[in-house]
């Protein structure tokens, strides 16, 4: 890891402290452009915004998808205080960001939490009604031949 990458990670950790100080979960992230410039920074605001999706990684991925062309997005690096959760990882993938560098792993984070914290898995059932469900989807991912 380069000294610049360490500095970006330290900034993500500072942002996580700012989130914590404002009453939110302690997570922070920044998005660095292809030339090493900080494009955007975010903190977790799930509590103060009353929005379960207000994770900093999610907010940066949405920002990048709106504001950056695909080539620029693919050349960015997100530096984040903790490994992105599943929701954020999905948003990062869909936004086309180039790379993520994190300070704490999800496993390391789990060791810092009291036992029994976290969210229970929601049971899921399916697939069902394939013939009906595929009708609105068919053609969306494949261009029409007509």
UniProtKB/TrEMBL annotation:
SUPFAM superfamilies: Cytidine deaminase-like (SSF53927). GO terms for molecular function: catalytic activity. It comes from the Bacteria. Residues 3-114 form the CMP/dCMP-type deaminase domain. InterPro entries: CMP_dCMP_dom, Cytidine_deaminase-like. This is tRNA(Arg) A34 adenosine deaminase TadA. It comes from Herbihabitans rhizosphaerae.
């Amino acid at each position: 890891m380069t000294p610049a990458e360490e500095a970006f990670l330290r900034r993500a950790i500072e942002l996580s402290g700012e989130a914590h100080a404002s009453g939110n979960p302690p997570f922070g992230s920044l998005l660095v452009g292809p030339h090493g410039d900080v494009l955007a920074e975010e903190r977790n605001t799930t509590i103060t915004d009353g929005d379960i999706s207000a994770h900093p990684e999610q907010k940066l991925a949405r920002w990048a998808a709106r504001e950056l062309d695909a080539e620029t997005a693919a050349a960015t690096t997100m530096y984040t205080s903790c490994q992105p959760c599943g929701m954020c990882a999905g948003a990062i993938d869909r936004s086309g960001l180039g790379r993520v560098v994190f300070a704490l792993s999800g496993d390391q984070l789990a060791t810092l939490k009291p036992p029994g914290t976290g969210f229970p898995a929601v049971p899921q059932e399916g697939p069902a009604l394939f013939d009906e469900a595929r009708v609105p989807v068919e053609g969306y991912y494949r261009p029409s031949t007509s």
